[in-house]
Design a protein that fits this description.
Helix content is 82%, strand content 0%. It contains six helices and no strands.
Length: 192
């Protein structure tokens, strides 16, 4: 059921972005058309994972990811909400939290089932926070590279914009990392 819902939701988003791409390119609004093409690619990620791999993230993470794409690509870039000033920072807070949740899901799939009793809550905290922060860093590398190689203006505020984004990503990840560490500690106490 979850797999079918992931496919359906991702397909709806991909088709929505495809319709926007066609609309904007036929009306000579290339920036918004390009954002919509990016939306097709980003929206296809959970769809392709569901169709061609056995790796399955839980439904709340996929839904959060798609909601983030709507907020970032549609509201932020296409409707221009990034011009509000605070929207970009809010989206980075949200992405830090989503990345942290994704890090937890990845961690839970990668560790040996019996290792859960031996894992330190501090390790869970650090892994989760590091995963979120790394995601933020990689995004900023993407923005910088796009600006340098394709003459875009993704880092409109320069170094200040980059640092605010990284701090917001880290804070979003930190909140989830603290919760994950506390949850792991509580699980370990229950077993002893």
């Amino acid at each position: 059921m979850n797999r079918k819902l992931v496919i359906l939701l991702s397909l709806i988003y991909v088709l929505f972005m495809a319709a926007l791409a066609v609309y904007y390119f036929t009306h000579n609004v290339s920036f918004k058309g390009t954002v919509a093409i990016g939306g097709i690619i980003c929206g296809a990620v959970p769809l392709l994972l569901a169709l061609f791999t056995k790796l399955q993230f839980n439904l709340p993470i996929v839904i959060s990811y798609l909601v983030f794409l709507v907020g970032s690509q549609y509201f932020g870039s296409i409707l221009g909400w990034y011009g509000l000033g605070w929207w970009d920072t809010f989206m980075h807070l949200v992405s830090g939290a989503i990345l942290a949740f994704s890090g937890i899901a990845l961690y839970e799939r990668l560790i040996h089932r019996n290792a859960g009793d031996e894992i330190s809550p501090w390790f869970v905290f650090l892994f989760t926070l590091s995963f979120a922060a790394l995601g933020g860093v990689l995004w900023e590398v993407y923005e910088f590279s796009s600006d340098q190689f394709f003459d875009m203006t993704l880092q409109g505020g320069g170094n200040k914009d980059t640092m605010i984004d990284l701090i917001a990503d880290t804070i979003g990840g930190l909140v989830i990392a603290v919760v994950a560490g506390i949850r792991t500690r509580a699980k370990l106490r229950k077993k002893t």
